[in-house]
Amino acid sequence: MSTRTPVIGVLALQGDVREHLAALAAADAEAGTVRRPEELAQVDGLVIPGGESTTMSKLAALFGMLEPLRARVRAGMPVYGTCAGMIMLAEKILDPRSGQETVGGIDMIVRRNAFGRQNESFEAAVEVAGVEGGPVEGVFIRAPWVESVGAEVQVLAEYGGHVVAVRQGNALATSFHPELTGDHRLHRFFTELVRDVVRDAGT
Q1: Catalytic residue among 179, 184, 187, 192
Q2: pLDDT of residue 203
Q3: Is 120 a catalytic residue?
Q4: Which of 5, 113, 171, 203 has the smallest set of CB atoms within 10 Å of its CB?
Q5: pLDDT number for residue 137
Q6: Pair 170, 74: CB distance under 8 Å
């Protein structure tokens, strides 16, 4: 039975990578950056950070990462997407930019920039199912929301009447940025999910 520290990568093509690395380390994970397929193969789980989803999609294709990412997610690798990362994990985007692709993994339709432009960014307390200790402080920056979900998707949180956190199997996504607040409970929640998968696999 494995009790080793889970190795969790942060997709480091674009976005707020450093903040996620710090949050994962605070949540007792071994964290490192992932830019290439051979690095992806070495991790137990992956965070897809916030940033610019169109740029991230194009860089993932350029670095030969889209198909390896899709394959690992389909195979059950735990993955957590925040903001742009949520968009990357969607099966469908309502208003995609030209050529924009996703990794998929969560049966949901998302709307890009749904909460407004950069100057309309805000913070809000969000109750997230499964996360103890009261509301999580969410930072919403050009944040998406989830328009609809499939039958296998669990809605973990809503804000303003819109779905902002979901889970399907080992895939987790939030519209907001928990890594910018100093509250590491969502990263700990994800780290424990990865730890459970590692333990069950006996690796």
Answers
A1: 179
A2: 65
A3: no
A4: 203
A5: 93
A6: no
Q: 191 near 21, Cβ under 8 Å?
A: no
Beta carbons of 190 and 10 less than 8 angstroms apart: no
Q: How many CB atoms lie within 10 A of CB 159?
A: 19
Which of the following is catalytic: 19, 20, 177, 187? 177
| Per-residue model confidence (pLDDT) at position 117 | 83
Could you give the CA distance from residue 158 to residue 112 in angstroms, rounded to a whole number? 16
- Of 83, 123, 137, 158, the active-site residue reads 83
Whether residue 83 lies in the annotated active site: yes
DSSP string over the chain: ---PPPEEEEE-SSS-HHHHHHHHHHTT-EEEEE-SHHHHTT-SEEEE-SS-HHHHHHHHHHTT-HHHHHHHHHTT--EEEETHHHHHHEEEESSPPTT------EEEEEETTTT--GGG-EEEEE--TT--SS-EEEEESS--EEEEE-TTPEEEEEETTEEEEEEETTEEEESSBGGGTT--HHHHHHHHHHHHHHHHHT-
Q: How many CB atoms neighbour CB 113 within 10 A?
A: 16
Reference 89, options 77, 79, 104, 78; nearest CA is 104
**The whole model's pTM is what?**
0.95
Please answer whether residues 83 and 175 qualify as being in contact, where contact means their C-beta atoms are separated by less than 8 angstroms: yes
Tokens of 142: 């050009």
Q: Which residues of the chain have pLDDT under 50?
A: 1
pLDDT (0 to 100) of residue 31: 97
